[in-house]
Give the backbone structure.
Amino acid sequence: MTPKSLLSLVAAFLLVLLALDSYFIVEETEKAVLKRFQEVVRPDIEPGLYFKVPLIDKVVKTDGRILSYDMDTESFITAEKKLLDVDAFVIWRIEDVQRYITTVGSTAGASKQQIMFYAHELLTPRVNEGLRNEFAERDVREVVSGEREDVMDSVATRVNEKTKKDLGIQVLDIRVKQVDWPDQVRSNVFDRMRQERKQDAAEHRAKGRETGEEIRAQADKERTVLLAEARRDAQDIRGEGDAQATKIYADTFSKDAEFFSFYRSLQAYRNSFDQGSDIMVLEPKSEFFQYLNSSDGQ
């Protein structure tokens, strides 16, 4: 190959490089600025195909999508001076590319991941400050359920005002994933809840025992009354039966007094001689043996 041919080949190669460096493409998911000698000459370039001055102009691209990141759990004090652990996440995007590159992406040689990490490092203290201020003005009930939506909207508005001005970042939303007591406080809360439940259980048991005693006492009272009434009724019935029996005996025996006397003597004999080993010491002429001595009792 002759020197002239080699020179032509090198020139063609350089022209190709210059041609490739004379345009750039901004994707739909990107935002870009055009810098010339470290001065931004074209900010906030929309997605598309563009031309630039080769070897002089430099294109700096950033992510144009809506981004989010989870923050580390932080502790905040409420208006009641109670400590809460808050786990939140931030939804944001780059609004002012020029300011973002100037403040966040100005580190030379940094990768996109490093720049993104740096952006998160700048966002975190601003978000924590907003959450701290809002939690300090509200009690636990408000930040957990009552006014949680208002708290998050207020924090997002406050933080967005600062980040747009300082970093070129628009904070779209801030949400709390979880609000919980710190480990030590949670343990104390659970202990107190257990004690309250034990106290409630003891009260219920005491009321149950008291109710049981009342029921048993009432049942015993009713049982005693029922037994007394039954005994009274039984005595009345026995009395009436005995009275009727006595009347029948009297009416019957009054018809024949001699037969009644004889019958009573037989009953006395039966009761007296019920046991074969019984011994009676009486005179033979005793009135007790009158019907044994004579059939007419004489």
Remarks:
- Residues 259-298 form one domain.
- The longest helix spans residues 183-254.
